[in-house]
Amino acid sequence: MVVAAPRRARAAPLAVAALAIAAGAALYVRDPRTSTYLPCPFHALTGLWCPGCGATRAFGDLVRGDLVSAASSNVLAVLLLGVGVVAWGLWVRGRRSRAPSRWVVVSGVAIVLAFTVLRNLSAGSWLAP
Which of 8, 57, 94, 114 is 20 to 30 A (C-alpha) from 37? Predict the structure, then answer.
């Protein structure tokens, strides 16, 4: 049985939701594909794509409902947003979370590193934004 969380306990996840909605509205009003947002400093210095390159465009595409374009900009960011939404939903319901196990952290780091390396190789150029 899920017990309703006290009002104070729901304030933080609702504040996060409000910020996410505000960020989505900003991306909807000012399209990242046609507007200038802060460029990636890693890409500007090295010419390589970092794991976050294309995430702003991906989120801008998501608020417009274009999942295919979002995935083509940064598929990892789209997948991690899905994980974040699930985690947020559990947080709202008052589910207690514990620290992720070591294998989850190591696997997550390995996935991000593999994504970063692959998107900078010619074989993985389809992952580049």
Answer: 114
Contacts 24+ apart (CB under 8 A), 70-76: 72/129, 73/129, 74/129, 75/127, 76/51, 76/111, 76/112, 76/115
Q: What is the pTM of this model?
A: 0.83
CA distances from 46 to 30, 52, 104 (A): 27, 14, 30
Q: Residue 87: which of 25, 17, 9, 32 has the closest Cα?
A: 17
